[in-house]
Amino acid sequence: MRGWIDRRLLIGVGLQICAFLVGVASGWLLYSAGWLGVLLISAPMFIASPFFLMRSAAPLPVRLLMSFWILFIPAYHVATIVIEYTKVRTEVLLIPQGYRGLMALKFDEKTGAAAQEEEGKLVFRIGADGEGRTQAHEPRFSNRDPDESREQRREYYFVDAAGKRTRVARESTSTETGDRVVVFPTGDYFDKHGGISRVEWFVGTSTDQRNYYAELDHARRETFEIQKGLRGKVRILFDVPDGEPANGQGGDALFRIGPSGELRTQAHEPRLYYANIQRKRDAQREFYEWDGSGASQELKRPGPSGPKAVANDEPIVAGFQEYYGDNGVSRIEFFVGTPAELEKLRGPDDSGRPGSAR
Questions:
Q1: How far, CA to CA in Å, does 208 sit from each of 74, 154, 159, 183, 310?
Q2: Is pTM beyond 0.85 here?
């Protein structure tokens, strides 16, 4: 081996090493202008190295490898892009007719729907709540172009009760659309296992989109402190001029209900029109049994916003409902008691669905 390590080989290797060192130093010293050092110094030095390496005494395979190994880097990236493009699939997303707001499709969900295929396209049905869950896996690409191609190949359709599909146009940016309902993609979210956990998009007009994000500010955290031992229906009335002053801090709200089970408050509770923002506000509501001394115990809430199983003698919150007036939410009502007590107190029309109105 020592027989073919000559001066030309050492000069060629030295030029390549110096080219990389100059490139790194240019980035450190020149920041955004670092490409000048690469273009004017590093690149010429690296390009000159094969003239020495190819004239060295090394065997031809070694000379070729040492001279042109850098070409494997772009070749690798080109091959990766080509392979990833072959994995790009057309996806059909079926949206309930008339839905407006943010929507999401979650992948790799064990309890989600099995992947469906129509004419080589994957079909995903989104529920009335604006969310879809599928067992299908969505690969994460390392290159931007296949990712953009995947979004461009997604097809969005409204589906009515009879199953009729109507194509919904896609807008890449939040441009003014007048009264035209379109889809605005908002992004893909990655998991730590090399895939995409969910994809989100907004469906509606550009005005809908502005209203949605303005409404999102109203999804505040709400805490309900209920007098310890209170059982039965709890009622909170909003926008009452002579009611209790609004309580809370930092945008959050605190409602303290006494032994009467009713609170009349000056606080305003805005009505939320988008289902997923309503779910967010509902999920942030916390309930506590309060004894007046500062000690409190959280009350569970079986169902969408809490655990489904509780002990028979454990007080819980259920039947949460909102009632709307002209200016927002006029009142909210819910039951407090053990499961057995709640069954006796519930009327035939009490659905117990959070956020429902009558």
A1: 44, 22, 20, 11, 40
A2: no
